[in-house]
Amino acid sequence: MVLKLLAFHSFGDATPQGLPSNLEGGQLVLLVQLQVNGTPVFNTILNVDCELGTPPPGQTEGITLTVQNVINFSEKVSGFTVFIRT
Known about the structure:
By secondary structure, the protein is mainly beta. The protein has strands spanning 2-13, 23-36, 39-50, 62-67, 71-77, 83-84.
């Protein structure tokens, strides 16, 4: 469950990659709650990164999940991500 939007930094629309302008790259940071059978277990930080647009040097595509002081899934899971502007 998403608890709070912590940050969003846009890298701009996807036209540099030849894609529609309603697709956007950026970095999204959310505070989320992990639950088991509807019972809250941990509050975590979820980062979603999309390289479309004009990302800063060294930016990589994928997601990471950080459960503070408990578990750190610090190895970024790669794959295609995209933000859709409506």
